[in-house]
Design a protein that fits this description.
630 residues, alpha+beta, Heat Shock Protein 90, five-stranded mixed sheet, three-stranded antiparallel sheet, 8 strands, 73% helix
């Protein structure tokens, strides 16, 4: 009996030990995860990015969870960085930036400053692709500062390359060349063949843009040869071939150019490069347009437009609409041409708004990342109620600070626009001082020459015009007939001053009721003033101004076109040098203020007719206003 009791105790002791071992193993299995397993998973993420992007992102989430259980900040930072790259490949840039910021926090804990520098470099690439050049330059300079601290030459060379890319985008080609050459001098002594090829390609592209084709051709051809030698990644290889196609296009070797573009397109399709494909289609369409193959060009532009809209590639979408406008202009389909030039200008306006809100967006992203980091800290450290209360107060303070800053910036911007509006009303209430001075001088000459009838006629027309301008300056809208009467009176007065009269005519859609349709006053007068003064119509014996009004039922707008046969906007700009046209300033201010207060945006499109046909000369100015009835 005693032996049986001892045996039972032994079995119970053994079972408790085994149970404790099992429990201990289960509790530690998540904590002691092999680093090699996590590193292998990160490598698998990299292989899935191109062909299975969704699987790569799902795997990335699991890898981040495992890495955090390991409590190794360097491993967590690596996992977060890898997930950021996966989002970048899918053009989900906001999520990519969030994971990059988390990776920076982890690498900072681990004391890995070089890795922090690499992330700043990658963030700069995102800012550059989303047209935030100032933030891109700031990120690259942060990375360069860290690299210099550790004499990391490969990193320094990369930042010179990227900084040169920013200056290239900003069209500061001198600064771009300086940074590219600095990058090239460093990469020549480093075993970084693929990046060396990228610098050579960028130099070739730069010289091509500035028109130095003799310099561009050797660089681009060398880059093409070295792509095979150094096994350059497909994305950069596609860029090299695309630039070679552009160089052939500039030499008007169109068939050769199309061959390069087709090769580049196939490379980008193979790697699902949705960032590069729209540019490829756009370049192909430009070449087909030059060859007169308009329908094929439009097919390419439709492909480009579809990808741009899906991935929000605003800059390429703007160029796409501009090229469509050119094609429809050449085909004589002015209705569609006007549609796409309006869309292009709307995107331009949205880019300007985005640039003005960069700082505010930066604050929002920073705040969002801070909140996420605080939430993570609460979960991992199991903060007490007191700490949670303190954290809530901090978050509230941050939100209040950002809200106050946003309110102050908005109020300042509104005050500025109100000031501009008052200034504009003052401008509308006075005629161009040069015009008034010249008119009074003409009247004086008539009187001195005893031509009293002419002086009386001129004075009568002048007083009528000034009275109309003063009366209309107090109204937000006037009838279309009143606007056209002012234009006629203005041109008639100008004709009385000179022997060489300018012919003008109105082509008005029969469906437009001039007494019922209302528009903002004095929109077209500054345009006609520019045509007379800067278009040098006085030197043209066949000077003519055509004013066309069409009713656009689809968009409920009036399309307004003013066309002259002067010297053209390009020659006028070249002749006037630094001189600033008061009429031009009035047009810009009126469009800016009108668009701020109105949901129906107004855009002014100025076209030098010589760009449409070498045999033509003059300027065409188009704008449209919403149909507003009395």
């Amino acid at each position: 009996m005693r032996k049986l009791f001892i045996l039972i105790l032994g079995i119970l002791f053994l079972s408790l030990n085994l149970k404790g071992s099992v429990l201990l193993t289960d509790s530690l299995i998540d904590k002691f995860i092999p680093h090699d397993q996590i590193l292998d998973s990160i490598k698998k993420m990299e292989t899935l990015r191109v062909n299975a992007p969704s699987e790569s992102l799902q795997l990335g989430k699991r890898v981040i969870e495992l890495a955090r259980k390991s409590e190794d900040p360097s491993l967590v930072g690596l996992a977060e960085k890898s997930q950021a790259v996966s989002y970048y490949y899918q053009a989900v840039f906001d999520s990519s930036l969030i994971h990059y910021e988390r990776a920076i926090a982890e690498f900072d804990k681990a004391g890995k400053k070089i890795d922090i520098g690499k992330i700043y470099n990658n963030e700069g690439v995102i800012y550059r692709r989303t047209l935030r050049s100032e933030l891109a330059l700031e990120s690259y300079l942060k990375a360069q500062e860290i690299y210099r601290e550790f004499n990391y030459k490969e990193g320094i060379a990369s930042t010179y390359l990227n900084i040169g890319g920013v200056y290239y985008f900003l069209k500061n080609f001198e600064k771009a060349e300086e940074n590219f050459l600095l990058s090239l001098s460093l990469f020549e002594n480093l075993e970084q063949g693929s990046k060396y090829v990228k610098v050579i390609m960028n130099l070739g592209a730069l010289y091509m843009v500035v028109g130095e084709f003799d310099k561009a051709s050797p660089y681009l051809n060398q880059a093409d040869i070295l792509c095979e030698k150094y096994n350059v990644n497909p994305r950069d290889r596609g860029d090299v071939i695309l630039n070679l196609g552009e160089l052939a296009f500039l030499h008007k070797e169109y068939e050769k150019s199309l061959e390069y573009y087709k090769r580049s397109e196939q490379i980008r399709k193979d790697i699902n490069d949705y960032w590069g494909l729209p540019k490829n289609y756009l370049f192909t369409a430009t070449c087909l347009t030059a060859m007169g193959r308009y329908d094929e060009a439009l097919e390419m532009l439709n492909k480009s437009e579809q990808i741009c809209i899906e991935y929000k590639l605003v800059d390429d979408l703007q160029k796409c609409y501009l090229q469509k406008w050119i094609i429809f202009e050449k085909k004589g389909d002015f209705k569609h041409a006007f549609k796409f030039i309006k869309q292009q200008y709307q995107i331009t306006d949205s880019i300007d708004i985005q640039n003005r809100s960069d700082k505010l967006q930066e604050l929002k992203v920073t705040q969002f990342l801070d909140l996420k980091e605080k939430e993570l800290a609460i979960k991992n450290l199991a903060l007490s109620r007191k700490n949670i209360l303190i954290l809530s107060l901090i978050v509230f303070f941050l939100l209040a600070s950002v809200s106050v800053l946003f309110f102050l910036r908005s109020r300042s911007y509104r005050n500025k626009l109100q000031t501009l509006s008052l200034e504009q009303k003052v401008r509308l209430s006075q005629m161009n001082p040069h015009f008034l001075f010249n008119s009074l001088t003409v009247i004086q000459d008539f009187i001195l020459c005893n031509e009293n009838d002419k002086a009386f006629n001129y004075m009568s027309k002048l007083t009528g015009l000034v009275r109309s301008v003063l009366e209309n300056s107090t109204h937000e809208y006037i009838s279309m007939r009143e606007e056209l009467d002012i234009l006629s009176a203005y041109v008639d007065l100008q004709n009385l001053r000179f022997d060489n009269a300018v012919t003008y005519r109105f082509d008005i859609d029969s469906e437009i009721d001039l007494d019922e349709v209302y528009i903002p006053p004095m929109l077209a007068q500054p345009i006609i003033e520019n045509a007379l003064v800067h278009g040098e119509l006085r030197n043209n014996p066949n000077a003519e101004i055509k004013i066309c009004l069409l009713k656009n039922e689809e968009n409920r707008r009036i399309d307004f076109t003013v066309e002259d046969n002067g010297i053209g906007v390009f020659n006028a700009t070249h002749h006037k040098g630094d001189h600033r046209s008061m009429a031009t300033e009035i047009i810009k201010d009126r469009v800016r203020i009108y668009n701020y207060y109105s949901k129906n945006k107004l855009s002014v499109v100025v076209t030098d007719l010589k760009t449409l046909n070498e045999d033509l000369h003059g300027t065409r100015v188009c704008f449209s206003v919403p149909i507003i009835k009395n």
